[in-house]
Design goal:
By secondary structure, the protein is an alpha/beta fold. The chain contains seven helices and six strands, in the order H-H-H-E-H-H-E-H-E-E-E-H-E. The protein has a six-stranded mixed sheet. Strand 5, helix 7 and strand 6 form a beta-alpha-beta unit. Helix 2 runs parallel beside helix 3. The two termini are 15 Å apart. The relative contact order is 0.13.
Length: 197
């Protein structure tokens, strides 16, 4: 479950369903009570992991959570969560990589690339994809960049790409084709790739 913390649905487990001892809660440092719009549960979860915390699944219902239109969760913007996810990915994974490939030359892959810090953008050696149109074009130009010349990142077929990968492809949307492509490379999740979808 720890390997899946970078997915778009936030923590591997929904916050109200996880629990820890009071001692660990104070060790982690409580919630960020910064006010409306702060994803305090996500930030606490990330800090929990940074301090060596683990996640285990309990296969039974332990509590019932009531979700209502006035819930504070609605004040947290998608962009806020995205930015925290990217920073966490940079701190936990990209800080130890010298280079990597983004698997998806489409919308999500490009969004991740543009959201990275300048230092981590420079580590991106390629995008990879299966879309022949993107592969034939051969590169992605970062048009919003203030650099001159504007950065151009190669786009190649996934079979020609060099790991490690940050995968920006949603699972279970291709009838198993993406998963089969990933399996054929014999890579290890948490070492050769991480999902960020």
């Amino acid at each position: 479950m720890i390997k899946k913390v970078f997915t778009s649905h936030g923590p591997t487990v929904i916050m109200p369903t996880w629990f820890c001892s009071r001692e660990w809660f104070f060790h982690v440092g409580k919630f960020d009570e910064g006010g409306k719009g702060v994803p305090e549960d996500l930030l606490f979860f990330y800090e929990h992991l940074q301090k060596g915390g683990e996640v285990f699944r309990v296969n039974r219902c332990l509590l019932l959570y009531r979700y209502h239109p006035q819930a504070a969760t609605h004040s947290v913007l998608e962009g806020t969560i995205w930015n925290h996810r990217v920073r966490f990915l940079e701190d936990r994974v990209l800080s130890s990589w010298t280079s990597f490939t983004i698997w998806n030359a489409g919308k999500q892959g490009k969004k991740l690339y543009r959201s990275l810090s300048p230092a981590n953008r420079k580590k991106v050696i390629a995008f990879c994809d299966v879309d022949e149109k993107k592969i034939t074009k051969g590169f992605y130009t970062y048009e919003e960049s203030e650099e001159r010349p504007k950065p151009k990142v190669p786009v190649c077929h996934f079979r020609d790409a060099v790991p490690p990968f940050i995968i920006c492809v949603k699972l279970d949307l291709t009838g198993g084709v993406f998963e089969a492509n990933l399996d054929m490379l014999n890579l290890k999740e948490g070492m050769d790739y991480y999902h960020f979808n």
